[in-house]
Design goal:
Length: about 100
């Protein structure tokens, strides 16, 4: 008889946040956001209005056209997911 090893199912780290960055995530701030996201080993995603994109992709991020005041969801999966979420939330909620 063969037994299957039970693996613990790990939850993704998710956080919804309202963008307060004056310029939203357009052009330069989007590039800076992607640079920040790429500092982390975790898989990172950003979701807006049901569309989810890779947070490490400038093209994906720009396709969402995120402006100030919009609600987004940050999703992380990996060893440094907590640090990644905290850093990216701080980025989109900073006041310029």
């Amino acid at each position: 008889m063969r037994f299957l090893k039970r693996e613990r199912v790990k939850e993704l780290k998710e956080q919804s946040v309202k963008v307060t960055l004056e310029t939203g995530l357009q052009a330069r701030p989007a590039a800076q956001f992607v640079q920040e996201a790429n500092r982390f080993a975790s898989h990172l995603f950003l979701e807006k209005d049901g569309k989810k994109v890779n947070a490490k992709s400038i093209m994906g991020l720009m396709s969402l056209a995120i402006t100030k005041g919009e609600d987004i969801k940050l999703i992380a999966d990996g060893a440094d997911e907590e640090d990644a979420i905290n850093s990216l939330v701080a980025f989109v909620t900073r006041e310029e």
